[in-house]
Amino acid sequence: MNLDGLRVPIYNIIVLLKIAGKPVWWIILLFVPFVNFVIGILAAIGVAKNFGKGAGFGIGLVFLPFIFYPILAWSDAQYSPQA
Predict the structure, then answer these.
(1) Which of 11, 15, 21, 53 has the maximum number of C-beta atoms within 10 A of its C-beta?
(2) pTM of the full structure
(3) Which residues are CB-neighbours of 55 under 8 A, at least 6 positions away?
């Protein structure tokens, strides 16, 4: 069985969780129905906070990612992980 197609999406989620400052084991929770919505929202809020934005911006990353991720990418926001 060839699993080459699975490496990139799972690695993408791992990198997103690291950027959000969340534990990598949360990837297991992303496969649980209904729990994955909460984990996705918490990860997006973590990404927003690590880039100096608020929780409202994180909610925007969840519901309008095609607008808010480019705003985050092309703004002057700098990644500074929270302790």
Answers:
(1) 53
(2) 0.85
(3) 45, 48, 49
> Does 58 reside within a domain?
yes
In a domain, 16, yes or no: yes
Residues 72 and 43: beta-carbon distance below 8 Å: no
Q: How many domains does the chain fold into?
A: 1
For helices 65-74 and 55-63, the axis angle rounded to 10 degrees is 130
Domain coverage including residue 53: 4-74
List, for residues 35-83, the tens digit of each pLDDT value: 999 999 999 999 999 999 999 999 999 999 999 999 999 999 999 987 5
**Residue 79, burial from CB neighbour count under 10 angstroms (0-12, 13-18, 19+):** exposed
How many other CB atoms sit within 10 Å of the CB of residue 78?
Answer: 8
Q: Which residue has 């990644």 as its token pair? A: 79
